[in-house]
Fold:
Amino acid sequence: MGSRIVIYSSRLDPDADAMASRLTELGHQPVRLNTEDLPAHSAIRLTHDGGDWAGAIEFDRSGPPLVVDEVGAIWVRRPDRYTMSDELAADLHYFAAAETDHVLGGLFASLDVLWVSHPAAIRAAGWKGEQLQRAARMGFRTPKTLITTDPDAVREFAETVPGDIVVKSMTGPAGMTRHHTGWRDHPLGRRQLLTKVVGPDQLEGLEQVRYAPCLFQEYVHKAFELRVTVIGDEAFTAKIDAYEGGVPAVDWRKPGIALRYSKFRLPADVEASCVEFVRGYGLNFGAVDLIAGIDGDFVFLENNPSGQFAEIDRAVPELGLADALASLLVRGR
Structure:
């Protein structure tokens, strides 16, 4: 095992850019394994002769190649779609993408290195429904939730919930553009799918719910929100004050709202539960979203196993997110 750090992501990823810069400042030269370089803008040469896999992936662009026996740690951030050669017939693109996926999957399964985090662990940790059940069993309070394709079930759910309900996506643009070719150019593929309140007018017209499963939850009235970034066995918590029209915003990611980050200290038991939740999947990184309710309770919303950190790191440098992640990658196994 070597000491080279690989950042597996895409070209347009500010978090990957920030980590690459930080590692360079520390004297390391990370490999950027961008999905857009594969396979059209790279040369894959991997060999097996009875021992471990050997060889390299070299890129047309500048930067170091991925030499298999030099790798010590891989940070899986946000891979996107592969790029196919213009000379390849369009009806073979899916086959070429599947073959490329298979090569990377086999290589990743063969590498005994530090993963932040392994793709299999990330996928297992990404199911929102399972997250809610696991969190509840660990003692977290979770919102009442309905997943359905039945408009009448939504209306019945709304009647059982005191106050408003919200609708939210379970995948989002990153997952859609990764697996479905058309999403990159679709309007939904270029913006976040925000959580929205479902008002009385929307309850009267819910026929589109029939076309795809939708997730509805009770709206938890908040004092503020929290992003708990778990890196290794440590947790770093940022308080998020987000206001729209003088009241707490439904979704703090909405552009144009008044937004402020600050360092926050969670109760020790809640912080420990966040770390246990993330580590329970075999993850070395997780971005846990909590609501601090107006009643003082902490409510679990979700965990993003490949969540963003750079924006909060810039806003609250005293948290030291980039340094903590860089330190973990440099230490390796």
In short: The chain has three domains: 4-116, 118-141+220-317, 144-219. DSSP finds ten helices and 17 strands in the chain. Residues 1 and 112 are 8 Å apart (CA to CA).
